Structures are given as structure tokens and as C-alpha cells.
Amino acid sequence: MQEIELECSEDIVPGLLTCSGWNATVLKQNTLEELVIGIVPNPASKYFAYMQFSDGKINEYLSKIGTGGGSLEQECQGFSAACPWMDVALVGSAGQSKPVLFGMDEIGRLHASGGFVVCNNCNSFSFYSNLADQVVTHLILATKQDLFFIVDIVDIFYGELDSKYGNFVRNNSRKREENENYIHIWERGAKIVGVLHGDEAATILQTTRGNLECIYPRKLVLVSIINALVQKRFRDALLMVRRHRIDFNVIVDYCGWQAFSQSAFEFVRQVNNLGYITEFVCSVKNENVIETLRKSCVCSLFRGC
Q1: What's this model's pTM, rounded to 2 decimal places?
Q2: d(C-alpha 151, C-alpha 86), whole Å
Q3: Between the chain's N and C termini, which has fewer beta carbons within 10 Å?
């Protein structure tokens, strides 16, 4: 195992591509007795990384540039099987977040560090963060049955996966509104290759034909709108509501009429568009749409990204 430092010896002009002036220096070299099948950085510390060995065991590696380390540290909670696809999520609340490792083995079981199996029929996964504090709030996964789920991270650690997500399988005996907890992927065998965080709230899928398609799951869109409202970013929230054709009432219903009326001046100042404000006022009605919208996982779709 080698730790290599890359350094540019010449000035870099922004926007200009260059292939010269880079120096590579081997800072540390270790001989390992086991096969390493995965390495991911620790999002909680820029000097640490997690290394997974062929039996699912995980050790933490301390970088040479950190505190003079360059060695394997203590063993961490690993997986019960080898997981060639591994990633790490920073979960929890601001100031009390911690990294949690997720890995998918060759038969499609999605593991969380500590030997816990989240899903038994997974074909790909990723994470979503609102970017405010880099903390992951949702696990995004696709199953071998071409079902697309958006899982609240808290549901994983509070043992509510089976009750809310039905063990990630289709159950035709359920009522239709309960079945809407997932999205049926229109392309058989499509896999999740990435998630756009923050207000974008989009997921990138790659089909078996190789093309990429971008979807905007309603659940993630609502999360991004609520995050904007919590941060008093009224213009951003309104633009997302208009873009994704969500009921304008969600802005008033989430804030509460009394709280929103107290922020009306700031709302108008931020939006600063007579047409948008007129459209908003004409659309508001005496009805709470929050619960109705949260039950739906219909996604707006943009093909050919």
C-alpha cells in the first residue's frame, strides 16, 4: 500500500487544462498481508480513510500528512461479508455526526457497519445531503426488482425499515397509496450512479444501454423545499415549487399561516418578481397539502442528461 502526494510545481491558471508540472512523491509504503478491496475517505476527518479487506474487516488508515502517521490504526466495525461496493455517510445531527459505512456484496445485500443488513436485494445505492452541514439525511437505493426507494437515515437506526418500506419488495396486496412508497424504474436493470445534493435534489440513473437519465423524486424535492424554508430562503423555495409544479400552498402550510404572515415582507423582498408573487397569491387556498404531498413519491422526469 502506497500513500502518494501530488504537487503542482507551476502556477495554475483557472480554467486552463495542463498536463505538466505535477510531481508525485511516495510518502509512505506499507506491506499488507491481506487483499484490500475498497478504500473510502472519512468525511469527519481529512487525514483518515477506511480500508476494507477481503473478509469484510475494516481498518482505519491515518495519513502520513496528518500527524506523522501513515499506518493502519484500530479495527472498525466492519461487514459480515466482503463488499466490493463501499461508501461512507456522515449521519446524525450537526455537531454530533458520525461516519457510518455502507457496503453491497456480490449477491446484492446492502450492509451497514456493525454487521447489520439494510436490504437483501439491492443493485445500487447512494446518499443525499442538504449540503448545509454535509450530514446525510437519506439513503437512495434501487433493487433487483427495479424499485427505487428513498430511505430516511433515521428509519435505518430506529428499526422501521420493514414497517415503512416492506423489506424493499413489491407487495401487491397493499393499498395503492401505501405502494407509492417506491418508484418503479422504467428501464429494467438501471442503476444509481450519483445524486445531486442540496436544492437540486436529483438522482442520476444509468441504464443497461449506457445512457444517463436524471429524475427528481418528489420526496427529495419536498425535503429541499423544506430546508430552504427553514433557512428563510423564500425565493429559492418558491422557484423550486414552480419548477417542479408543486402546490404553492406547501410554503404557507409548512410555515403556518401566522408565522408566514409575519415573514411576508421578507418573502416579497426576496422574490422581487410581481408575476411570481401574483401567481403565488392566486394559488394559495384554505387547505393543508403537506400530508397529501408527503404520501406521494411521483417524480418529475428529465430525460437525456
Answers
A1: 0.81
A2: 18
A3: C
